[in-house]
Amino acid sequence: MAKAISSEVGTGSREDNASRQQAGAPFRSDRSGQGSSEILRLEKVCKAYNVGQPNETEVLHDIDLELGHGEFLALMGPSGSGKSTLLNIVGLLDRPTSGRLLIKGQDTAALGDAEITHLRGHTIGFVFQYHLLISAFTARENVMMPMLVDRGFPNAEIEARANRLLAQIGLEKFADNLANNMSGGQQQRVAVARALAMNPDLVLADEPTGNLDTHSADAVFALMRQVNRDSGTSFLLVTHNIELARRCDRIIEVIDGRIRA
Ligand SMILES: Nc1ncnc2c1ncn2[C@@H]1O[C@H](COP(=O)(O)OP(=O)(O)OP(=O)(O)O)[C@@H](O)[C@H]1O
Ligand SMILES: [Mg+2]
Closest Cα to atom 6, ligand 1: which residue? Predict the structure, then answer.
């Protein structure tokens, strides 16, 4: 693995940003210049499923949560306590039933679908337990995918950036391997590279190491921690692994849809 994930991975090289400006993509200043003191703030967030149906159930109750820029937070709690529901809301994949969700100081309630899609694509990266790579694509193609969808980078730059990301997670030799033909730990590292492709401010990882052996889990965690330290990317990591959680900046626990005080 590269000695240090350079800031290029997390913050985008100067050339990247210049290229994106040329390509009409919004230029994002470096993380230090951001207006709000936190990347994420939830105020009294509630989430109910099947609203208005006889089986309506509230699974998140009055969640208050803040995540500082560059913070690496572990989210723990029993199965069914609401961790993935919370991550889906933070990741703008689902909306709260009530309460406020602010990302970089911006209240998301006022945003329409197109603005939500843009904010999600440019601010948030996802890593899931089952990496969800496209198995018939190569490692490089999987990392390129978010950039191809966004179309903010010039085509030539997309491939070069994917190559850089793969080199920086130590998998440059596997760039042309089909995702299918890689080990679980390698695939999960590719999933981390893919999550970083759009240079997000915040990475949401839902049990990314739950399916891996101890050694691979450690490598994936170390990679995320290194990116966090080198580039200031914030992380919200759901894990059942107390050893990994203890290596995060802070641990919070969700029990029955509430943050345990
Ligand atoms: N789409 C849905 N419709 C109805 N109920 C749901 C839906 N998704 C989740 N739930 C319920 O919400 C509760 C919280 O689920 P969630 O997936 O957030 O838990 P979790 O903490 O991530 O659990 P695990 O550790 O097993 O992944 C559970 O009772 C679950 O059954
Ligand atoms: Mg879950």
Answer: 49
Instruction: Say how many Å lie between the CA of residue 32 and the centre of ligand 2.
Output: 32
How high is the pLDDT of residue 69? 95
> Which domains are seen in the chain, by residue range?
7-260 (3.40.50.300)
Q: List the beta bridge partners of residue 73.
A: 236, 250
pLDDT at 187: 93
Beta-carbon contacts of residue 1 (< 8 Å; ≥ 6 apart): 169, 170, 219, 223
What SS3 state is found at 51? coil
Alpha carbon distance 235, 239 (integer Å): 12
Q: Look at residue 27 in the predicted model and tell me its pLDDT.
A: 26
Q: Which residues of the chain have pLDDT under 50?
A: 1-30, 32-33
Give Cβ neighbours of residue 106 (< 8 Å, ≥ 6 apart).
119
pLDDT tens figures, 38-94: 999 999 999 999 999 999 999 999 999 999 999 999 999 999 999 999 999 999 999
Q: 31's torsion region: left (phi>0), alpha (psi -120 to 50) or beta?
A: alpha
**Residue 137 Cβ contacting ligand 1 at under 6 Å:** no
Give dist(CA 174, CA 182) in Å, integer.
8
**Pocket flag, ligand 1, residue 83 (CB < 6 Å):** yes
- Continuous H helices in 108-154: 113-123, 139-150
* Amino acid at site 103: I
